[in-house]
UniProtKB/TrEMBL annotation:
Residues 1-21 are annotated as: Disordered. It comes from Colletotrichum nymphaeae SA-01. It comes from the Eukaryota. This is Acetyltransferase. Keywords: Transferase. Residues 89-221 form the N-acetyltransferase domain. It holds the Pfam family Acetyltransf_1. One of its GO terms (molecular function) is acyltransferase activity, transferring groups other than amino-acyl groups. The keyword Transferase applies.
Length: 221
């Protein structure tokens, strides 16, 4: 018998899974891997990662099952990210608790904004990808972005950033709260939101805690 946590820790107690349960789960993972292999064979040879599949936010138990099945997994970093979960209806409204620069406004991303985002991160991004995600930017009166974030393909809070001169004013936290409450419904109405946080990013972890988030499991990219 193995004891693991479910994906909704606030709503369900710790559950005990039998070895048979684990076998069923691993057979489902194997079926997904087989389907991915078949799709991969249909892709052009000149693609970015020939013979491989790029996976994001891969849960550690799933990765371990893949390794046991003989799959070669090459993480981008030598550490795991922390998966933080939020109940959307429990995230505080923070917009009225911050004082914005005079004339500053909230708005979605433009292509030029996305180019700035790409210049501020080491994570490989493309403008067309960022433009396809729900986004929120805080911009000065002249249109200069000073804080921003996106909701990624899996609805997780992504690329949250505040320019150095405007930090310690609560802008990033207010922006994250506003974006999650406004944007997560586009992905479904289950009431959950998430963020993947690097273990060394103490600022982001504190922000997640302040929004009522909980570190629930680890993932790889």
């Amino acid at each position: 018998m193995a004891t693991i946590h479910t994906s909704v820790p606030e709503d369900a107690p710790t559950r005990t899974f039998t070895n048979e349960d684990k076998k069923v789960a691993e057979s489902q993972i194997a079926a997904v891997l087989d389907a991915v292999t078949q799709v991969s064979k249909q892709q052009p040879d000149n693609r970015t990662l020939p013979g491989a599949c790029l996976v994001g936010t891969l849960a550690t138990p799933t990765r371990d099952a893949m390794l046991r099945a003989g799959v070669r997994v090459t993480p981008r970093q030598d550490y795991e990210y922390e998966k933080w979960l939020f109940r959307v209806d429990e995230i505080p409204d923070l917009e009225d608790r911050v004082t914005l620069p005079e004339g500053a406004t909230w708005s979605p991303a433009t292509e030029r904004d996305c180019e700035i985002v790409i210049s501020r991160t080491e994570i490989p991004r493309q403008v067309k990808t960022l433009m396809s995600w729900p986004s929120l930017f805080l911009k000065l009166e002249d249109g200069t972005p000073i804080a921003w974030s996106f909701l990624g393909t899996d609805a997780s809070l992504s690329s949250l950033h505040c320019e150095p001169p405007y930090r310690q004013r609560g802008y990033a936290k207010a922006l994250a709260s506003k974006l999650i409450k406004r944007g997560t419904s586009e992905y479904g109405a289950d009431g959950w939101a998430s963020a993947d946080v690097a273990p060394y990013n103490t600022g982001s972890k504190k922000m997640c805690q302040s929004l009522g988030g909980r570190h629930t499991w680890n993932v790889s990219w």
